[in-house]
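U., I forgot to send this yesterday:
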Amino acid sequence: MKLTINSLSVHTFGESYNQPVVFVHGFPFDHSIWEFQIEALKDKYYCVAYDVRGLGESYVGDGQYTMEAYVDDLFSIINELSLPKPIVCGHSMGGYIVLRAVEKRQDKFGGLILCGTKSEADDNAAKLKRAAGIDQINTEGLIKFVDPFVTNCFAEDTVKENEKLFLNTLFKAHKNDPAGVKGALIALVSRTDTTPFLPHIKIPTLVLSGSFDKISPPPLMRTLSEKIPHSEFAVIPQSGHMSVLENPGCVNDLIISFLERRF
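Result:
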């Protein structure tokens, strides 16, 4: 079912009386990156996926977003749908959103799944890179920015051997409004460092990393996991930053095992 909540495009799958799982996608993608996970879970779980503000089919507005606004958007969906203790699953930027949401109101959540993300805020080099991205979109257009960025998100073998998947994901990113993509870059710069909070996470947590992820490599993700008490960590073979698309079978097996054992 497709809904509009707080000007966000929200999609629900499965029966609302089941354990809810909320999926939050990364930059500069949309909710469809979770299609394989939703297909695997919707019969036993109530899956909710949405387009982050400014991306996909969600409201763009003036393109002035902050990470705190993104977090408020997540809470608005949870509240509007009356989701009891949802498990939140965040990829990349979506991981930043759910980590900050759990930091603000851990009591609202039942569990946490982190895919290819990090807890640290941008350092100076990363901030300058975001600024250069905004400038490139302004001067050269969205596609000039998106093409190398999305390519870097995939393992080299995926680009060569699963061209259809890669191009489908790339072309979806092309459809974003430039103002929304620039707004997301501003939001990424605005995020706070949630690293000090990691030892205080008490809800069951699963951390997943693509074996060839150049953005959030396995050593970084392992370190994040080690800071969260009793968290589980796994590396997804034959995948880059987009492991949820590149090797969905492995990702699904790990998520289902985690959910069945911990909930």
